[in-house]
Design brief:
Number of strands of chain A: 0
Order of helices and strands of chain B: HHHH
Largest interface: A-B, 43 and 45 residues
Number of domains of chain A: 1
Largest sheet of chain B: none
Structural class of chain A: mainly alpha
Number of helices of chain A: 3
Radius of gyration of chain A: 15 Å
Helix content of chain A: over 70%
Oligomer: heterodimer
Structural class of chain B: mainly alpha
Chain lengths: ~90, ~120
């Protein structure tokens, strides 16, 4: 009997494949940024499920930090595309 | 196993399946849709509903232990910041000069920009 969490972890790993396809193929820069953001969100969800699976609280810290870094990175690239400067 | 445990288990699995469905739909849209803005609209659903559903499911499974509190913190953070990031990258894509797909029927931001430049 496969448990629900193993099934969802497998599903999340399979969900990274379209993101990598879009990062490689994407015609414009915002396409790649969107795909990277989606991939980071999927990895955050994976870390959350894995943290519950291992009953270890440290993976959830990693998920929180990774989501903060993804937000800051996306806003930085958006500002760079918009105005041409970062700061 | 009493009634409350069973109902919490069912509710938690329902949230998990809901989150996984939204992640699946987001990935489908990321591959299939024709335009940057359409893809942006679809992938934001992963950040808000998909991640929040899975984190809510973990909270319902473990209760208010450290794992559960951190899970709901991550879920609320993603729920707040994912639309902001999507809005910024969409506006940057428009100003950077990414065209809309040819099936688009209306472009209101162009009119707004023209009105803003005229004043």
């Amino acid at each position: 009997m496969i448990s629900m969490l193993t099934l969802s972890l497998t599903f999340m790993v399979l969900a990274i494949i379209p993101c990598i396809y879009r990062i490689i193929k994407g015609p414009t820069i915002p396409d790649r940024v969107i795909a990277l953001d989606a991939m980071t969100t999927v990895i955050v969800v994976m870390l959350g499920i894995y943290s519950f699976d291992q009953s270890s609280v440290f993976f959830m810290d990693v998920a929180l930090v990774l989501s903060i870094i993804a937000f800051v990175g996306t806003v930085t690239i958006a500002k760079y595309l918009d105005e041409g400067v970062v700061l | 196993m009493n009634l409350i445990d069973i109902s919490l288990e069912i509710l938690s699995n329902t949230f998990l399946v809901l989150g996984l469905i939204f992640v699946f739909l987001g990935m489908l849209g990321l591959v299939r849709l024709p335009d940057v803005y359409n893809r942006l609209h679809t992938t934001t659903k992963i950040g808000t509903l998909g991640a929040f559903g899975v984190m809510m499911s973990i909270l319902l499974k473990v209760g208010f232990s450290p794992i559960g509190v951190k899970a709901i913190t991550v879920g609320l953070f993603l729920l707040l910041t994912s639309p902001i990031a999507a809005h910024m990258i969409g506006r940057a894509a428009y100003r950077h000069g990414v065209c809309l797909c040819k099936e688009s029927v209306i472009d209101e931001y162009e009119k707004a920009c023209a009105l803003n430049n005229k004043e």
